[in-house]
Design goal:
The complex is a heterotrimer of chains A (337), B (289) and C (278). By secondary structure, chain A is an alpha/beta fold. Helices cover 46% and strands 13% of the residues of chain A. Chain A has a 5-stranded mixed β-sheet. In chain A, strands 2-1-3-11 form a 4-stranded mixed β-sheet. The N and C termini of chain A lie far apart (66 Å). Chain C is mainly α and 278 residues long. Chain C has 2 domains: 41 residues; 228 residues, Orthogonal Bundle (MetI-like fold), CATH 1.10.3720.10. In chain C, α8 runs antiparallel to α10, α9 runs antiparallel to α10 and α10 runs antiparallel to α13. The chains are: A alpha/beta (337), B mainly alpha (289), C mainly alpha (278).
């Protein structure tokens, strides 16, 4: 008797522990996303659940999302995170998952606009009145300017930041790769905080008062203004930025195993619907739908933007040249102080 | 080697009682203990010990010579040692007040000492940050005199003091209570001044307990994550603690690199605790003399 | 008890000591606690209550309770078994065993979580094998439980060992002589002797289990409503600028800490283990 009790208790605990988390009766969908989309997907998940119930005779579903640096999130999916859909900061991270066989090749053509239902770009967020007079990328390299950006190794937004600065430097009079590398080196020496994700950087800049300028997603900059009052910060548009196309796709192996393909595909399609587009605009992502974009009015001023394909020959090239081990980022990153 | 509180040796139990023990249950109890220990602690920790070697010795050295890793280790160990050191007189003061003095509200004070122990670390971190942020209750007056605690290495130190304080108080307290006042009285009778009695009689008697408290407070705070992470500001090379560097390596899925830093932390902590143990052993015979 | 004038400090010294101690504990311990509750109620009761009503908050609370409900019994059982071996028997390697039991205490919470990633992660020892079979440890409940068990490992054993050693084995031996089985003598003799200490240990273990952040942060996939425990949920809310909600959930955990302290004080009074000298 004495011997049985503990063993039984152990077995009970083991049995409980073996139940996978979230094995509830409600069908669930997991969206593994990147850092600044928290608010967008919080709203969109609820909207989609309502939409799905209406279309499917009141069937209730639950959509969960997980957020972090885009690179970290992609690795988590590769590492076994059971994502039904991924909505990451850049195509390269989705491609990395596809390379492991979890997503079918040619995923980018499955949805309109390169599977990017909304776009964004990189802007500067400065302290009120822009006391250091930071107007363009070159100003970030000036002596005594504190720059806040996440780490390009883990954050998708940071890679867009980096490439935008690079593209700008190449297009200056006498610009070249060498000049760009030199500029990036000087900007990186001004970096005071290098967080793993975009949200961490925003928190450092906005709440902890670190640095003079935050290199931020346009949507993240607007959100900071909204949350902390427009009186504290200014958004500055550089003369040239980059068109960021955050990619979305279904994780084929996971949905096939879990039997969630239909819901997952409907979820992503709904991002392109008028409701999805309006929600994107509301959360300061540039919608693809021209009508919704026009309705947003002056929130999205026209901006001179390069694309990753024209400036860098696509993500695979950009990643290899700049962010892979031994790439330009590794060569020039020298932490300040 | 570990931070084990000195457990009193069992009197008269030096002979072996393996065969035909009057008390049954040894096999079962030891079986459960070893299973529990192996599954939860030993096997996982062996992964930490073995994993780094896949990088090779050069790889390990490369990870450890990263300026960011070095700075983080220096900050974690420096602050933890300093915080444990500062906690010694403070912990002694609180223990003294609790044991020797009677005043209204003593019981509340007594219960409060354990707060950092019971309070979830993330909550403690948020609370300390709210308190010491430049617009917080303590942060604002401190800012007026030009001291910034939150988002600086000072914040790391404050958070480590917070988590370590109960350990110094709680290890010194029972010894102080058992010590009673007889020795001091004897010293006074022999003509020692109050200061002499405290310095020559009380302090040496408390020294081993103080050292244990130091070791516990250090061990607890050196690896602390939750309460430090919110207040530290996490600036690389300045206010970034070693556990955060580990987390970032894990987020980048550099498991081996993370394991290298984790193993280094573990070994360094043992070196410190071992030194504390040696000091304790060295103090003991002197006290008897 | 405070008797002889020789050991009595002047009132000035004594009161300075008391005031210093009170000041230290107030600034250091009470103020942070007060800050949590103030921040939680800054936007009124309604906001705080709304924060608890959020389904994500409720699932975080449920998950925290579930994890503690598994981790605490496991460590209680292990702790009792370990204390029984260490306190009642002599065997080679005993000191090593005690040291190993206390080991998790000096391991950083982050490392405590990481070791399970090293074993069960997709790149870990068992990761590929588990993935083939569709078993999920990391980024799921089992990982959270394992990390929590690791972190709260020594608490029950630590509180029991000194007491059980102090009590020796004479009573159990007497029971055995009278024909009691091992289980009977444990249930009727040992357990009543240590019940208050055991409860204190369980209480501390539970407080730590529910409040653990660093270790579970490493093994959780941070999925809202699925693998977020309360401390992790607080961090997420904080990162989403929902400060009032973050502090509201934090206040709930702080309340739990206060209840723990209160219960511990009561238990100590019951057990009379900490004799008062006055």
């Amino acid at each position: 008797m004495a011997a049985f009790l503990p063993r039984r208790a152990l077995l009970g605990a083991a049995a409980l522990a073996a139940v996978p988390a979230g094995a509830q009766s409600l069908p669930t969908l997991l969206n593994v996303s990147y850092d600044p989309t928290r608010e967008l997907y919080r709203a969109f998940n609820a909207a989609f659940a309502a939409h799905w119930a209406k279309e499917n005779g009141g069937q209730r579903i639950r959509v969960n999302s997980s957020h972090g640096g885009s690179g970290s999130q992609a690795r988590a999916v590769i590492d076994g995170q059971q994502a039904d859909v991924v909505t990451l900061a850049l195509a390269y991270d989705v491609e990395a998952i596809a390379e492991r066989g979890l997503i079918d090749k040619g995923w980018m053509g499955r949805l309109p606009h390169n599977s990017a239902p909304y776009t964004s770009t990189i802007v500067f967020l400065t302290r009120k009145g822009n006391p250091k007079g930071l107007r363009d990328w070159g100003d970030l390299a000036k002596e005594g300017v504190g720059v806040v950006t996440p780490n390009p190794k883990t954050s998708g937004g940071a890679r867009w930041n980096y490439l935008a600065a690079w593209a700008w430097a190449q297009r200056q009079p006498g610009g070249s790769d060498a000049a760009a590398e030199e500029l990036l080196g000087r900007i990186l020496r001004n970096v005071t905080v290098l967080d793993t994700g975009a949200r961490g950087s925003t928190t450092s800049f906005v709440q902890r008062g670190q640095g003079d300028v935050l290199l931020a997603w346009e949507n993240e900059a607007h959100l900071a203004l909204k949350e902390f009052g427009a009186g504290q910060f200014d958004i500055v548009l550089p003369s040239l930025s980059i068109l960021a196309e955050p990619s979305v796709t279904v994780v084929d192996r996971n949905v096939d195993r879990r039997g969630t393909r239909a819901v997952a595909e409907a979820y992503l399609r709904h991002l392109y619907s008028p409701e999805g587009q309006a929600l994107a605009a509301q959360h300061f992502y540039r919608p693809r739908d021209a009508g919704v974009l026009a309705a947003a009015g002056g929130v999205f001023p026209p901006l001179n933007m390069v694309t990753i394909d024209e400036a860098f020959g696509g993500w695979a090239e950009a990643q290899k040249a700049h962010f892979a081990d031994g790439g330009s980022f590794d060569r020039i990153y020298r932490p300040s102080r | 080697m570990s931070v084990a509180l000195p457990l009193p040796r069992q009197p008269g139990a030096s002979l072996w009682r393996r065969r035909r023990d009057a008390l049954p249950g040894f096999g079962l109890a030891l079986g459960i203990t070893l299973t529990w220990l192996s599954l939860i602690v030993l096997v996982p920790l062996s992964a930490l010990v073995l994993r780094p070697w896949e990088l090779g010795v050069t790889g390990i050295l490369q990870v450890l010579s990263d300026p960011r890793v070095l700075a983080a280790l220096r900050l974690s160990f420096g602050s933890a040692l300093l915080a444990a050191l500062v906690n010694l007189p403070l912990g002694l003061l609180v223990a003294w007040v609790l044991v020797r003095l009677r005043f209204p509200g003593r019981r509340v004070l007594d219960a409060m000492v354990d707060l950092p122990f019971a309070l979830p670390t993330a909550v403690a971190g948020l609370a300390l940050t709210a308190l010491f942020a430049p617009n917080g209750w303590l942060g604002a007056p401190l800012k007026a005199v030009g001291v910034q605690v939150a988002y600086t290495p000072l914040g790391v130190f404050v958070a480590m003091m917070f988590v370590g304080l109960p350990f110094t108080v709680r290890t010194v307290e029972p010894v102080l209570r058992d010590l009673g006042t007889e020795a001091e009285e004897a010293a006074a009778t022999l003509g020692a001044s109050r200061a002499q009695a405290l310095l020559r009689v009380v302090l040496p008697a408390l020294a081993p307990a103080l050292l244990t408290g130091f070791g516990l407070a250090f061990a607890r705070s050196v690896g602390e994550y939750g309460s430090v992470i919110f207040i530290a500001g996490n600036r690389p090379l300045v206010s970034e603690i070693a556990p955060l560097v580990i987390v970032q390596r894990l987020e980048g899925f550099d498991y081996a690199g993370a394991a290298v830093i984790g193993l280094a932390m573990l070994l360094l902590a043992f070196v410190v605790l071992f030194a504390v143990g040696l000091l304790q052993a060295w103090l003991r015979p002197e006290r008897r003399a | 008890m405070i008797s002889s004038p020789a050991t009595r400090d002047r009132p000035l010294t004594r009161w300075t000591a008391v005031i210093l101690a009170v000041l230290l504990l107030t600034v250091f311990l009470a103020l942070p606690l007060a800050a949590v509750f103030t921040e939680a109620l800054r936007r009124g009761w309604e906001t705080a209550l709304a924060a608890y009503a959020d389904p994500d908050a409720q699932s975080a609370i449920m998950l925290t309770l579930l994890v503690a409900a598994i981790a605490v019994p496991v460590n209680t059982l292990g702790g009792i078994a370990a204390a029984w071996c260490v306190a009642k028997y002599e065997f080679p390697g005993k000191r090593l065993l005690v040291a190993l039991i206390e080991l998790p205490f000096s391991v950083s919470p982050v490392i405590s979580g990481m070791v399970f990633v090293l074993v069960f992660g997709a790149q870990g020892w068992l990761g590929p094998w588990l993935q083939e079979r569709g078993v999920q440890i990391i980024f799921a409940l089992p990982g959270l439980v394992l990390a929590t068990v690791f972190v709260t490992f020594p608490f029950v054993a630590r509180t029991l060992i000194p007491l059980m050693q102090e009590q020796g084995r004479t009573e159990e031996e007497a029971a055995a002589t009278l024909g009691a089985s091992g289980w009977q003598s444990f249930r009727l003799v040992t357990l009543p002797n240590v019940k208050w200490a055991l409860l204190t240990g369980v209480l501390l273990c539970n407080a730590r289990a529910m409040g653990e952040f660093g270790a579970v942060s490493v093994v959780s996939g941070h999925i809202r409503g699925e693998t977020n425990t309360m401390p992790l949920y607080i961090e997420i809310l904080y990162n989403e600028y929902q400060f009032a909600a973050a502090f509201a959930v934090a206040a709930l955990l702080a309340l739990l800490a206060l209840v723990t302290l209160f219960a511990k004080t009561l238990l100590e009074r019951f057990s009379g283990r900490r004799r008062e000298i006055a």
